[in-house]
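Example record

The entry below shows one chain as it appears in the dataset: sequence first, then structure tokens.
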Amino acid sequence: MPQPGPMGGVSAQALAKGLTRLLLAVLAWVILSLSPAWAQALVPVPPLTARVMDQTGTLAAADVAALEQQLQTFEQQRGTQIVVLVLTSTAPEDIADFTQRLGDAWKIGRREVGDGLLLVVALNDRRLRIAPAKSLEGAVPDLAARRIIDQVIAPAFRQGDVAGGLRAGLSHLQARIEGEALPLPEAGAQGGKSSGAAEVDWLNLAVLLLVVLPSVAGVLRRVLGQRWGSLGT
């Protein structure tokens, strides 16, 4: 007759499988119940359309225009690109991780210099994040960024003046960046394009004409004859 297993007919292998399934089920229940945010989708990265982007409608149109002009003028004079994003929340993601995704997607600043800076405001979360690119880490270290948030931007926010807080915070950031030995933009550069952009376009056009024109001339001469084909060319 077969001998009973060590647990009254239940083998050790079957017992181990049962316990494993039970533990996995309990673990899954704990994860889903304690961390429902894991099942939420991350906030999508919006397309970069301006230097100041307010997804909450908190800023008046005039405030957005003034802040945009402030950043545009600074970029034209110093070369450094600063972008502000105001959104409702970054949940379930931490604002630091969201800002990292934002920087990876937007890649602001001059590529050869690495001088972009992001200012992200999550209003409902009451969180702000200043994220400088590598070349600006000396001008805006973590301690300085924290002081600007705590002592300049946040007090204005608490008084309901979001535009004023952003304006003052950006002025402090720009003052620190001005003290950094970064290359200035080329003379006449506008919006990140150098004055030589038009020359490159004319050069491409000249090359195109040199290649296309002989072919067009040959076709016109065959269709219209030597005299009219030459005139058409």
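Notes for this example: The chain is about 50% helix and 10% strand. The domain at 52-178 is CATH 3.10.310.50 (Diaminopimelate Epimerase; Chain A, domain 1).
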